[in-house]
Amino acid sequence: MTKFSNEITKLFNISFPIIQAGMVWCSGWRLASAVSNAGGLGLIGAGSMHPMTLQDHIRKCKEATSKPFGVNVPLLYPEIDKIMKIIAEENVRIVFTSAGNPALWTSFLKERGIKVVHVVSSVKFAKKAQQCGVDAVVAEGFEAGGHNGREETTTLVLIPMVKDAVSIPLIAAGGIGSGRAMLAAEILGAEGSQIGTRFAASLESSAHQNFKEMIVQIKEGETIVTLKQLTPVRVVKNKFYQRIHDAELGGASLEKLNEILGTKRSKLGIFEGDLEEGELEIGQISGAINKIQPAREILNEIWEEYCAMKKAICT
Question: What percentage of the chain has pLDDT greater than the value 70?
Answer without folding.
Answer: 99
